[in-house]
Every structure is written in structure tokens, then in C-alpha cells.
Amino acid sequence: MITVTRNAENTIQRCIASVLSQDYANVEYIIIDGQSTDGTIAIVNSFNERVTRFISEPDKGIYDAMNKGIKIATGDIVGILNADDCFADKNVLREVAEAFMNNDIEALYGDLEYVKPGGGVMRKWRSGNYKASLFNWGWMPPHPTFYCKRLIFNKFGYYHLGFGTAADYELMVRFMYLNRLRVYYLNKVMVKMDIGGASNKSISSRIKAWQFDLKAMGKNGVLFPHVCVIFKPLRKLVQYF
User: Fold this and answer.
1) End of a domain among 56, 86, 116?
2) CATH code for the domain of 31
3) What burial letters (b/e) apply to 177-197, b meaning 16+ CB within 10 Å?
4) 121, 194 in Cβ contact below 8 A?
5) Helix (H) or strand (E) holding 191
6) Do residues 232 and 134 share a domain?
7) Which domain, by its residues, includes 48?
């Protein structure tokens, strides 16, 4: 389990507590911090005995930090829970582990809810059953629910920093669609995520995100990239109902 963070003193304690409260004991927990200047480091250090490894140093952004965590991980399965996310309940990691043990799979994803500052649910991301062809029509799973075998990164590569805010999308397309991983849908809300995101801060950031999406689609052979890039944000609309 990997958490990446920088200047997240308002949310990191909740994130860590949600990992440590899981009812599955066999968890290697790695936290990669981008040399925070607020109270984040002190909060993480307060959990020192229960965090497997903590690194705080400059990095090239969130996906570089994720790559650092993956490269030092030793567990069989890798998942990422960012500092402003938390698990929906205490059973998530146990159910993830059971899915990998009981099924011939290489990757897994589930459902996610976006929550407002007061705690109410703003959006419900229900992923549905997997078909590789769905990527041709703008579908993607929520990245905070994505787990895969660690050796898959060695085989097919890590997060590519040249894709900006779409680096997580590009990796999932590359793994699941281009390289046809055996994928399992865990039909439950796995993660609660604070509303917001770097790709939605402004019109210009949204346009950049579309450009990165197109680049990711083209690189990985998505059939209808210009249709897909329109459908991808439209799929989010139904999550509000």
C-alpha cells in the first residue's frame, strides 16, 4: 500500500488511519512525501511504528512519487491511496486480497465516491463490469481503486511523467487495454475521495487534460480517440445522479 503526499496536513491523518484500521494484517505501508513544509511530516512520524517505510525528499510530482513507492515495494500486490483519500470501510484490503487469491487475475478495480468537505456524497462512480472495448468509448476505472500485481510494473513499465494529469489513465489503458491484463471488478465502494483535482482547476487545465488524454489514447491504440475524449468527461455526468 502506497500513499504519496505533499503539504497535506489537513487530510493525511485520516488517510493513514483508514489504512491502519483495515482488518487485513499483511500490509506493507509505504509513504512517499515530496518534502512537505507544513505539518505533514510530523503527523506521519507520529505513526512511525506502524508505517513500514517513510521517505520525504524532493520529487518531480505525484507520479514520480508513486513510481518511487512502487520500486521499493516488496509485496505481491500494489495499490495507491493518496493523502486526500480514505478507505470506505475496514474490509477493503481483505476483500482485495481475497479477490487475488480466489481468482486468476492480474489487476482489480472497484467503485469510488467523491465527498464534500462536510462529508456528504457529491458523486458516485460506479465502474461496472470490465470489457476491454469500453476504453474505446471513454470508460476508465477510478485510479484510487486500481490494484495490480507488482511484477506487472516490471513487465509493462511505470507511470510515464510525460502524460501530465493523465499519467494514471495512460497506465491503466496500457496495462488493461493494450496488454490485456486479466481484470476483476470488485463490486463495492472502496474509496472515498475529496472533491476536486488538478485536471479540473480551470478551463486551461481541463484543455491540457484532454490533450494528455488524446496522447494516452493514441499511444495505446484506443480505436476512437477523438470520440473517446468527448465521451470520457460526459460519463462523469451520470455520477451526480
Assistant:
1) 86
2) 3.90.550.10
3) bbeebebbbbeebbbbbbeee
4) no
5) strand 183-194
6) yes
7) 1-86
Cβ atoms of 82 and 159 within 8 Å: the answer is: no
Task: Tally the C-alpha atoms within 13 A of residue 58's C-alpha that lie toward its C-beta.
Answer: 0
From 195, 185, 191, select the one nearest 89 (Cα to Cα): 191
Residue ranges in the chain assigned as alpha helix (H): 12-20, 40-45, 62-72, 92-102, 150-156, 167-172, 203-219, 225-234
Same domain, 120 and 201: yes
Q: Has this prediction a pTM greater than 0.85?
A: yes
Instruction: Please tell me whether residues 71 and 22 are part of one structural domain.
Output: yes
The answer to whether the beta carbons of residues 110 and 185 sit under 8 Å apart is yes
Handedness of CA 72, 169, 240, 188 (dihedral sign): negative
Q: Residues 150-195: pLDDT tens digits?
A: 999 999 999 999 999 999 999 999 999 999 999 999 999 999 998 7
Q: Cell numbers at residue 53, please?
A: 517505510
Is residue 95 one of the residues assigned to a domain? Answer: no
Query: Domain tally for the chain?
Result: 2
Q: Which residues of the chain have pLDDT under 70?
A: 196-203, 206, 231, 234-235, 237-241
In a shared domain, residues 224 and 114: yes
